[in-house]
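Annex B. Sample input.
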Amino acid sequence: MIHEVFMPALSSTMTEGKIVSWQKSPGDRVGKGETVLIVESDKADMDVEAFYEGFLATIIVPEGGTAGVGQTIALIAETEAEIEEAKKQATTTATTSTTTPPPKATPTPSVATPEPVAATVAIENTPSRRNGRIVASPRARKLAKQLNVDLNNLQGTGPHGRIVAEDVEVATGRAQTPTVAPQPTVSPVATPSPISTIPTPAPAPVPLGEVVAMNTLQNAVVRNMLVSLQVPTFHVGYTITTDNLDKLYKQVKSKGVTMTALLAKAVAIAIQKYPIVNASYVDSGIQYNKGINIAVAVAMPDGGLITPVLSNADQIDIYSLSRTWKDLVARARSKQLQPQEYSSGTFTLSNLGMFGVDRFDAILPPGQGSILAIGASRPTVVATDDGMMGIKRQMQVNITCDHRIIYGADAAAFLQYLAQLIETNPQSLTL
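Annex B, continued. Sample output.
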């Protein structure tokens, strides 16, 4: 019997996937649950495991090729005798299926319709061995295959023990012994803003005068933004004094607490009192989300952005929240996040204060009711309560809301409470 391997739907917004590498060659035996290929989805690189046992008879979409969700990308024959028959079947399939991306359908904020998938998916996100399976980057797997290096004999030095390309090069004597890279930290810049997320890498040189194709993540952002612009939104701004928050941060920074975690925690506590800003519009009414999952926008080195999610941020202590955030960012940078770690946000933070940006309006993500844009915290001359002039550090925040379910008074009350929390009682964030 001959089985088709389809391009799986690895996320609710994915319409196509790019094949990073094939882990099996035509004619190789394939076991059920064994990794056959690695696919680049709109957010991460994922292992695709075989759903059937047999032999990889033929590859229809080669490495570097793109296929729409549900498109046949390979055939698996149960016996060696059926391999030739599978190759003939592949010729017929190839005439109706190409590696050219299909027309992009406009995604909806709701859960995508299930596609026919003849494979299961697993994500590389834990140490070098997980349940007996090797965890390695796509590039490391491809390089190991080219250099005939057995990954079973390597110890990964990447994030969470993942085997990276440099480990393979060391094994063949092509590079010096790598050292384990420290986990990225989230710390504020001294000036002009104490409010910061992970710094964005310097932009790479670009080929001026040429058209460069977008990567999968960038295309996903394009589709999401087009959906977002169909939603009627409005913006409300507020000025927040950050002196007390800055003092608190200096006290807890040495304990591993990040400013991002403090801001996420403050927003989560404010949402507890004003759950409407954590809600979303659905055809049948207002969806009040049970969990307060704070997504935070992070720029990716190769273009696009991703929003790792701090799930149940209101229920987690600030120290655990900070550790979780550092881990999420490290794995986001190396495309190791699981789908629920970047697609389950109910409220989003976007912070450009690290660049000295005073204020900006953020575009509402599909499926959410609000997103908060955070500007730089700057020394500002203000009038004090006694009628004198003084200097305080202040930042501008602007919330974008779905006007179908959230009204101006709702957004204003939420921001007012958030400001009171940050200005008068930031210590409560550490409880």
